[in-house]
Design goal:
This protein is an alpha/beta fold. It folds into three domains: 346 residues, TIM Barrel; 52 residues, Oligo-1,6-glucosidase, domain 2 (Alpha-Beta Complex); 69 residues, Sandwich (Immunoglobulin-like). It has 17 helices and 22 strands. The strands form six sheets. Strands 11-10-9-5-2-1-15-14 form an eight-stranded parallel β-sheet. A five-stranded antiparallel β-sheet has the order 16-17-18-22-20. Strands 6-8-7 form a three-stranded antiparallel β-sheet, with no helix packed on it. Strand 10, helix 9 and strand 11 form a beta-alpha-beta unit. Helix 12 runs parallel beside helix 16. It starts with a helix and ends with a strand. The relative contact order is 0.10. The structure holds 1-O-alpha-D-glucopyranosyl-D-fructose and calcium ion (CA). The site of 1-O-alpha-D-glucopyranosyl-D-fructose (TEU) has 15 residues, from strand 13.
């Protein structure tokens, strides 16, 4: 069993999953208490977002000590118990490793900024300004300049994310040795691998060229990502550490291209085992990113899945997802979170669970959790949202309500509201004051309700996961997109030598005729339980069919 290809990943955002000590913050003990629930879904692998010491400028993606667990989440003893409990249930744990940057409160950075002569100074990128301006025009993913001026040094340091997330200088061999030590420490504890945060960014173009900011997606691809030594660094880390353990890696790949993807994940490259590309995650982003939205286009969405499957082929491997802690809830973004919330949640589940690549399910998708629309920006927590609010406020035509609507549609806090366990106060997430408000729809959308109804989304996930595990064609089969230009039908085949599946997804509330050449397949599972004619697809109807 190739566990990392045939298994199902469940992503847990620890801050929002389950609070065990009433401080309103999810924690490790809370996760331990819910492992039976996670295992009952048919999950094999848990990807845990960062739990290391951090000032939480970017909710743990700004690490100040890689060797300690943030006290908010618990102790190292709690972590050891979590790992053992996961293993006891036959599941595995991937930890989230953020080594493109650290927190500015990490000891290395505190030393680095002391003076220009100590051995930690070159752990980061320090450059002189140009006539009182930053070294170049690079901007942060979170808005504003990617350079922060340090008066004592009369120099700027690079931060592709917030100013509290200075980029590590991987050119410095000592940095690479420290990363090797960190990964060895956690692997020696027995974890099963890592999700590697923004890993294509770790090699910088040392001429720091000016960027054409008219298309930020292009800047990520051609200026920030895929730098000259990225593969050398990954091959070194794999050789020095990964190859000595029974472990696997999944990279987060902003900016990777279909041409370069197998340079990262082809087995013979000995770099990463699998990767998340993010092309479908920017499908409704305009040139200025998520807060510059454009309309969703299904044929373009289908083409992304088809062309990435083609690009990776059988040389490499992807992990397939439709949302995570950085992007809005998939049922609100790609489905219909109103009248057809249940049907479209099941349709999106069928997409994730019938594609070639390791399915990655974000916590709460299994009950169809939706975006939230807080009525005040004071209710929002995400540094990306709050940074852009400050930037947009400076525009002459700024309108607070317009911006709030943008946040409702595209903000990351949509996916960071607490897990909805039941209809009790705070949805059973906490008995304290939650760090972020719950989605008020928890009274109708919660685990308790879904477990009680066998027509629920949870049971559909369980059934689909069982079906995927019973049929290698759904894991390893060739993928063939049908009707690429159809405006509402996402139809494709998954085939191996001896089995063939047809998947029909009606991405619309409009009923539609099924093309006659698709008759004759036998239904395996569908998201409508009432019997239906084989000539039509109902609103948001999804069907998995087999050729025999
Ligand atoms: O995300 C990087 C990334 O590609 C997304 O953050 C996205 O590009 C961004 O939200 C702009 O829209 C990783 C982590 O997943 C994210 O949570 C961190 O904030 C970021 O890196 C910095 O570590
Ligand atoms: Ca807690």
């Amino acid at each position: 069993m190739t566990w990392w290809k045939e298994g199902i990943i469940y992503q847990i955002y620890p801050r929002s999953f389950r609070d065990s000590n009433s401080d309103g913050i999810g924690d490790i003990r809370g996760i331990i208490d819910k492992l039976d629930y996670v295992a009952s879904l048919g999950i094999d692998i848990i990807w845990l977002n960062p739990v290391f010491e951090s000032p939480n400028d970017d909710n743990g993606y700004d690490i100040s000590d890689y060797y300690s667990i943030h006290p908010e989440f618990g102790s190292m003893k709690d972590f050891d118990e979590l790992l053992e409990s996961i293993h006891n249930r036959g599941m595995r744990l991937l930890m989230d490793l953020v080594v493109n940057h650290t927190s500015d409160e990490h000891a290395w950075f505190l030393k680095s900024k002391e003076n220009a002569i100590n051995p930690y100074h070159d752990f980061y990128f320090w450059l002189p300004g140009k006539e009182g301006s930053p070294p170049n025009n690079w901007i942060s993913f979170f808005g504003g300049s990617a350079w922060e001026y340090e008066p004592d040094l009369d120099a700027y340091y690079l931060h592709l994310f917030t100013r509290k997330q200075p980029d590590l200088n991987w050119e410095n061999e000592q940095v690479r040795k420290e990363v090797q030590d960190i990964t060895r420490f956690w692997l020696d504890k027995g974890i099963d691998g890592f999700r590697l945060d923004v890993i294509p960014l770790i090699s910088k173009r040392l001429d720091f060229p000016e960027a054409d900011l008219s298309d930020f997606g292009k800047v990520i691809e051609t200026v920030y990502s895929n730098g000259p030594r990225v593969h050398e660094y990954l091959q070194e880390l794999n050789k020095e550490v990964f190859s000595n353990y029974d472990m696997k890696t999944v990279g987060e790949g902003p900016g990777i291209t279909q041409k370069t993807v197998n340079d990262y994940v082809a087995a013979d490259r000995k770099e990463l085992d699998m990767i998340f590309h993010l092309d479908h995650m920017s499908i409704d982003h305009g040139p200025q990113g998520r807060f510059d939205p454009v309309a969703f286009d299904l044929p373009a969405f289908k083409e992304i899945f088809s062309s990435w499957d083609q690009a990776v082929g059988d040389r490499g491997w992807l992990s397939i997802f439709l949302d995570n802690h950085d992007f809005p809830r998939m049922v609100s973004r790609f489905g219909n979170d109103g009248e057809f919330r249940v049907e479209s949640s099941k349709l999106l589940a069928m997409l994730i669970l019938t594609m070639r690549g390791t399915p990655c399910i974000y916590f709460g998708s299994e009950i169809g959790m939706t975006n939230v629309a807080f009525d005040s920006l004071l209710d929002y927590r995400d540094v990306e949202t709050l940074n852009y609010y400050e930037i947009y406020k400076q525009n002459s035509d700024f309108d607070e309500l317009d911006f709030l609507n943008l946040v409702h549609r595209q903000g990351r806090d949509n996916v960071r509201t607490p897990m909805q366990w039941d209809h009790s106060a705070h949805a059973g997430f906490t008995t304290g004051e939650p760090w972020i408000k719950l989605n008020p729809r928890y009274t109708e959308i919660n685990v308790e309700n879904d477990l009680a109804s066998d027509a629920s989304i949870i049971h559909f996930y369980r059934d689909l996961i069982k079906i995927r595990k019973a049929h290698p064609a759904l894991v390893y089969g060739e993928f063939e997109l049908l009707y690429p230009n159809h405006p509402q039908l996402f139809a494709y085949l998954r085939t191996t030598g001896d089995e063939s599946f047809l998947i029909l997804l009606n991405f619309s509330e409009d009923q539609m005729e099924i093309p006659t050449e698709l008759y004759g397949y036998k239904e395996v599972i569908g998201n409508y339980r009432v019997s239906h004619d084989h000539e039509k697809l109902k609103s948001w109807e999804a069907r998995l069919l087999t050729s025999h």
